[in-house]
Amino acid sequence: MILDRAEIIGLLTTTDESEIRVLRTRAETTCLKVFGSDVHLRGIIEFSNYCRQDCLYCGLRRSNIGQPRYRMGLSEIVDAAEKAASLGFKTIVLQSGEDLYYSVSDIARLIETIKSRLDVAVTLSLGQRDKAAYRSWAAAGADRYLLRHETSNPVLYAYLHPGHSLDERIDHLHMLREAGFQIGAGNMVGLPGQTVDDIAGDLLLMKQLEVDMAGIGPFVPNPCTPLANSNGGTLDLVLREMAILRVLMPDVMIPATTALDTLDLHGRELALRWGANVMMPNVTPTKYRRMYTLYPGKTSVDEDPKQSADCMRLRVRSCGRSIATGYGHSPRYLRNKQLPGAQTWEAKQ
Ligand code: 5AD
Fold first, then answer.
1. CA-based nearest residue to 43, from 99, 144, 122
2. Per residue in 290-327, pLDDT tens?
3. Contact at 8 Å (CB) between 311 and 91?
4. First vs last Cα of the chain: how many Å apart?
5. Distance between alpha carbon 287 and the CA centroid of its chain, in Å?
6. DSSP secondary structure, 130-186, as one string
7. Looking at the DSSP assignment, which residues form a beta bridge with residue 185?
8. Helix (H, G, I), strand (E, B), or coil: what is residue 39?
9. 85, 89, 90, 211: which could join 118 in a potential S-S bond, CB 3.0 to 4.6 Å?
10. 201-231 pLDDT, tens per residue?
11. 176 alpha carbon – ligand 1 mean position (Å)
């Protein structure tokens, strides 16, 4: 469905309960029509919390010198991936701060090892690197790359990310797509100074980029950052943005983001009812979890990978939804793959 900016702003701001109900129902129905009741599970391994960036909102920012840091060894990461695969995950997400300790070829070898030993798709979430790195990791077999655009307001983007610009971020999303990845963008809701017009811009940008995946979550102020005293995002606005995205882009993959659980005990279940179709249980070894503090109030920090997986399966089923058994590639990607020569993916084969 096509919605223009004014209609999107109308849906983000309306106080008419029946209009909000129609939006939610429409998002849920669209999701069920495209994906059935299946929810895709992705096991996420947060393998390093070192970061060269200094994003104002994030607890991993390099200026947060009180933050204890850790790095998992490459074989330890492979062990965690094996554990995740044995728990039934068909996608492993490798996430870290922007940590140059791991060379481009270290990561390529890691991907090759995981892909050769395990029957899984691999998603990377490693921040901005260069075109050569993206190409090398795609060639090594990684399938997807998450790089949220964070906010579509260029002034706010530049304020939150010292030394960087929104244009540069968008260039990286293009580079990732050209390298052959399914790409994930996404934004935080409730950033200081952000308006509903900006959120409409986030939605229109994701539509324009034809992203495969979209992570939308609340901004949760972190006391160890310069934004400690800001207000965070609300559950209502995050859910509305997700629902509008589902209506705008019926076959995009939308995770029920982890940060939602800091606002409501059942935040992620709610997201499934507002258009989400992906959950990302944490499969990081327990001893590291407390140190991966993007924001405060992170849940599941005392669980082990099996407990997190079991808990997420229960939560999905509690919503009357089922667990998908396939890799969960994006429908947009699968469609394009079949067009001869339409994608650089073809060249990669
Ligand atoms: N609140 C909510 N989300 C955050 N992220 C980082 N810091 C915060 C915060 N304080 C999100 C960013 C990043 C993702 C990995 O985590 O959107 O892309």
1. 122
2. 999 999 999 999 999 999 999 999 999 999 999 999 99
3. no
4. 34
5. 23
6. -HHHHHHHHHTT--EEE---B-S-HHHHHHHSTT--HHHHHHHHHHHHHHT-EEEE-
7. 214
8. strand
9. 85
10. 999 999 999 999 999 999 999 999 999 999 9
11. 20
pLDDT tens digit sequence for 19-65? 999 999 999 999 999 999 999 999 999 999 999 999 999 999 999 99
pTM across the whole model: 0.96
Q: 188, 58, 176: which is closest to 128 by C-alpha?
A: 176
Decide: 261 in ligand 1 pocket, CB within 6 A: no
Q: Residue 190 above 50 pLDDT?
A: yes
* Contact call for residues 216 and 240 (beta carbons, < 8 A): no
For residue 217, the CA-to-ligand 1 centroid distance in Å is: 8
Number of H-type helices and E-type strands within the chain: 14, 11
Q: Which two tokens stand for residue 249?
A: 């882009």
The average confidence (pLDDT) of the chain is 96
H-only helix segments in 217-329 = 235-248, 267-273, 286-289, 305-318
Give the number of other Cβ atoms within 10 Å of residue 287's Cβ.
Answer: 9
pLDDT in tens, 239-296: 999 999 999 999 999 999 999 999 999 999 999 999 999 999 999 999 999 999 999 9
The 322-323 sheet, strands edge to edge: 278-279, 38-41, 322-323
pLDDT at 138 over 80: yes
Pick from 294, 295, 298, 299 the residue to mutate for probing ligand 1's pocket: most ligand atoms within 8 Å of its CB.
Answer: 294
- The full set of domain ranges for the chain reads 5-347
Task: Name the token pair of 337.
Answer: 């793959």
Q: What are phi and psi of 340, to 5 degrees?
A: -60, 125
Distance CA 172, CA 21 (A): 37
**Residue reference for tokens 């507002």:** 274
